């Protein structure tokens, strides 16, 4: 079989002094940091949708992507050829995982039955290619937002038929993910929200969304799927307001409807900034609830106010991400999933390699910097010392729920005034981070 990327060799580690754009400068998969290799720490995943199904179009122009393996037909043979090209890419890049939506990988048919059959034909190629390459499925999902039937939502649609169709689509996508040995399944509510409350029964829609997810939990148990369920927050775009708007909103929803035991969060950097948060905030909010499962690795352009899905290149951002992830003990599910796309002007197949190499190097550097900061101990020692007063007997009583307001008054009355505050030393700590970067 001829190669789809004949001009690209297997990407290897060349080291920081390498000037070869098709070599890693910082990601050496076998290098050990702490108790794991970089490959084990980072668990890199390539997304199917942006990498192999995105034509690089925008609202002002047709797609620019040159993809020799794609003949543009909406046919199963074309989808199977694209699948083989994808696995050649995964293998040459050295990515251990991939992720997909059902409609990314197989054409949608005229009926649901036909769509199911199309997906089954492409999954046969996936199974063969997984066996050949050793690449695994990080997570699968269903596209419940592109087809016009979902214009009002899927699980939150006022149209019962749209809800039922979405349920059938998720059922099939879960079966396929299970059959491929996928490590998880993700729910992203791209149309689960509203444009105006004038025509929206929010309480009923949220109840329906919860019922939909409970149905998925029940079916997961029925088929014996042991992978992790993820919710991916995003505040807006395509809807004005999405119900899974940020980490806090998702956690509140999951707790309200008794779903938190069954779900973790898949957090994305660009979604965090659209919600008005830093990625570090979203990560810490999820970690505090024991609910961080995986991350989508990308970034947005600070001059643009939408989801640009650019590859991550900021070492400061990747360091912050890895400080959080290492701080929780590392990934136990999920990984670093490149939900990112090349720019419209970067239209040649080789640009896909340049983009992923840069993102993998950026996270490798972030991991090394974060590990060094943690090993150094100054940052964590400062935080520990800042909260030292809470290690007192009264502090422990408050934190354990045993103190009363009367007790607080009795403590502070003899003092007359609270002890003086200490400086937060923000600038000093930012300097510390830069010292390692």
TrEMBL record:
Sorted UniProt keywords: Carbohydrate metabolism, Cytoplasm, Isomerase, Magnesium, Metal-binding, Xylose metabolism
Gene3D superfamilies linked to this entry: Divalent-metal-dependent TIM barrel enzymes
Positions annotated to bind Mg(2+) 1: 232, 268, 296, 339
Subcellular location: Cytoplasm
Active site (catalytic residues): 101, 104
Binding site for Mg(2+) 2: 268, 271, 307, 309
SUPFAM superfamilies recorded: Xylose isomerase-like
Family: Belongs to the xylose isomerase family.
NCBIfam families for the chain: PRK05474.1, xylose_isom_A
Name of this protein: Xylose isomerase
């Amino acid at each position: 079989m001829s190669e789809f990327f004949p001009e690209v060799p297997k990407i290897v580690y060349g080291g920081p002094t390498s000037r070869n754009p098709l070599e890693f400068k910082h990601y050496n998969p076998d290098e050990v940091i702490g108790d794991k290799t970089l490959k084990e720490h980072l668990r890199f995943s390539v997304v199917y949708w942006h990498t192999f199904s995105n034509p690089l179009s925008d609202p002002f122009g047709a797609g620019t992507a040159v993809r020799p393996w794609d003949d543009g037909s909406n046919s199963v043979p074309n989808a199977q050829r694209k699948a083989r090209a994808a696995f050649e890419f995964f293998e040459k890049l050295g990515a251990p995982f991939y992720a997909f939506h059902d409609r990314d990988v197989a054409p949608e048919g005229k009926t649901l039955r036909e769509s199911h059959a199309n997906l089954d034909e492409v999954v046969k190629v996936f199974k063969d290619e997984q066996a050949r390459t050793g690449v695994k499925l990080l997570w699968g999902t269903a596209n419940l937002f592109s087809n016009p039937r979902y214009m009002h939502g899927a699980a939150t649609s006022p149209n019962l038929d749209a809800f039922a169709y979405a349920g059938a689509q998720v059922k099939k996508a879960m079966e396929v993910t299970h059959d491929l040995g996928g490590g998880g399944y993700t729910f992203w509510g791209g149309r689960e929200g509203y444009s105006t409350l004038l025509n929206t029964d929010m309480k009923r829609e949220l109840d329906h969304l919860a019922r939909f997810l409970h149905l998925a939990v029940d079916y997961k148990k029925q088929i014996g799927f042991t992978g992790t369920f993820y919710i991916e927050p995003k505040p807006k775009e395509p809807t004005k307001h999405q119900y899974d708007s940020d980490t806090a909103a998702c956690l509140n929803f999951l707790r309200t409807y008794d779903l938190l035991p069954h779900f973790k969060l898949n957090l994305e950097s660009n979604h965090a900034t659209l919600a008005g948060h830093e990625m570090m905030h979203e990560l810490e909010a999820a970690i505090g609830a024991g609910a961080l499962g995986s991350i989508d690795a990308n970034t947005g352009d600070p001059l643009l106010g939408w989801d640009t899905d650019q590859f991550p290149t900021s070492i400061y951002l990747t360091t912050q991400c890895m400080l959080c992830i290492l701080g929780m003990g590392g990934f136990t599910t999920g990984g670093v999933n490149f939900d990112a796309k090349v720019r419209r002007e970067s239209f040649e197949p080789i640009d896909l390699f340049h983009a992923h190499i840069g993102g993998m190097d950026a996270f490798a550097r972030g991991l090394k910097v974060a590990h060094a900061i943690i090993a150094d101990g100054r940052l964590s020692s400062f935080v520990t010392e800042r909260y030292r007063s809470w290690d007192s007997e009264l502090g422990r009583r408050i934190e354990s729920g045993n103190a009363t307001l009367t007790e607080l008054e009795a403590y502070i009355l003899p003092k007359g005034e609270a002890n003086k505050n200490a400086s937060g030393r923000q600038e000093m700590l930012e300097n510390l981070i830069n010292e390692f970067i």
